[in-house]
C-alpha cells in the first residue's frame, strides 16, 4: 500500500472514477489470491534436492560406482542426474544414462556443471562431447576396476568437490584392505553366479581383497570373471566356497543362511567330493553393493574378514 502524506493530493478522498479503478484492482488482487491458494493446495511432483546455491557444482553421476563414492564423501546433495542402475541415490533424481546411452534431453534439462563417467578410458559418445563443449559441461572419466582405482577415484572426486573429504575413507581403506590375524589359510573359491557357476578371478577387486586380507584364492590365473562347470570345481578341490551374490537393494538383510540352506542354493556343487563340502566351509555375502567397485568395498572386506576368521578358528 502506498504511504500517504497529509499535504499530498494522495490524502484526498478519491473521486468516483478513482473508486471504480480501486474496486477493479481489489477484485483482481482477490482473484489472484484465490488462484494462488488453489495452486498451493494442489499436489506437485516430487523434485530432488538441488545444490546449495546456483554457484554449487551440479553433478551428473552417470555410474553407480561413482554415485556410491560421492555418497560416502557426503556429496550426494550436489547430484542432479544419475545412472538407470543406480543403487543408492534418491529415486527422484532424474535418470540421465543407461550403460553407453545418454538421455540428452534429460541432461539438457538438469544442466550439470560436471558429468562423471566410468568409461574405462574410452572416449565419451560424440554427441555428449559436443553438448558438453556447447554448454560448458566438464566431463570426467574415472576408470574403476581395481582397489587402487577405487582409492584414486575417491581422491579425485574429493579434490574436485570437497578437498580433504577423502582422508577418513582412505584411512578406512588401508585398515580394511590389510592382512587380518587368524584368517583361514586354505584355498577359497569366490563365486559370483551359480547358473552356470562363475568365479571371480585375478584382476577382480574381490580377488584382490581376498589376497590383501591374507586369504588364498583357489584360482590363481585367468580373467576377472571365469565361467566354470562342476568338473572344473571338482578338479580344483577348493577348501572353502564363498558366494558373493548381491540381494536386491530393496530387500532387507536376512539372517545368515544355514549350511543346509547354502547346500540347497549351490545345487549340484553340493554333491561334489571337495574339502569345502566335507568341512561345511560355505558362506554367503549378499550386500546389494557387493559387485559395485567403490568405497562399498570397505564394508565387503570387513564381511569377508569375519568369514575368514570364523573358518580359521574351526
In words, what does this structure look like?
The chain has 2 domains: about 60-175, Nitrogenase molybdenum iron protein domain (Rossmann fold, 3-Layer(aba) Sandwich), CATH 3.40.50.1980; about 180-314, Rossmann fold (3-Layer(aba) Sandwich), CATH 3.40.50. It is built from 11 helices and 12 strands. The chain has helices at about 15-40, 65-70, 105-110, 125-135, 145-160, 165-175, 205-210, 230-235, 260-265, 275-280, 295-314, and strands at about 60, 80-85, 95-100, 100, 115, 140, 185-195, 195-200, 215, 225, 240-245, 280-285. A 6-stranded mixed sheet has the order 4-3-2-1-5-6. Strands 7, 8, 9, 10, 11 and 12 form a 6-stranded mixed sheet that branches. The longest helix has 26 residues, at about 15-40. The radius of gyration is 29 Å and the shape is elongated.
